[in-house]
Amino acid sequence: MRTTVLAIATLFASLGAASVSAQTADKLNPGDNLPAINTTMRNATGTNMTLKGAAGENGLLVMFSCNTCPFVVKNQPITTKTMECAKAHHVGMVIVNSNEAKRGDDDSYSAMQKYAKEQKYTVPYVVDENSVLADAFGASHTPEVFLFNKEGKLVYKGAMNDNPGDPNSYKKMYVEDAMNAMVAGKEVNPKTTKSVGCGIKRKAA
Fold this sequence. Notes:
Blueprint: H1 2-22, E1 41-43, E2 48-49, H2 51-54, E3 60-65, H3 70-74, H4 76-88, E4 92-97, H5 109-118, E5 125-127, H6 132-137, E6 141-142, E7 144-148, E8 154-158, H7 174-183, E9 198-199
Parallel strand pairs: 3-4, 4-5
Antiparallel strand pairs: 1-2, 1-5, 3-7, 6-9, 7-8
């Protein structure tokens, strides 16, 4: 198990140099490499980490989120379900807060720590300083997810489910279906869906 994870980390590291040139700077598409793998981020637990270090045996799920967006709050049970699904599939998961314009307010580091405890997060909840990851991924909303396979290739991006506005009435769990297919070696379908939520609050230029 440890040898497998180390092999994945090595593979992700080899992809890093090619990732910027292999894809457009503002949009990540299925088949593109995991970007910003060596960017150091501060976890709500107080430790530092990178996406490369967060990868699991079967890949990595990156979720852009925050503390107060109504779509994030109402979909919190779906986030919990997604964390459990990722763990069961041996897929690493990271929740990323890129709301730099709110860093002195609702999305401050201390507020993130409090929210992570309240929601019983079992995965890292990290600060994306200057929205570096959001820019590298082309992320625009919270919540929004990006699923990468064990080769570090994007296989799904978009919404967690088909009814973010009323998650109690969803019919499809896109992200869970994508993980099931990915781990089974099947083609993920759909590969992209529209993310619906609050816009990521980047710093004014």
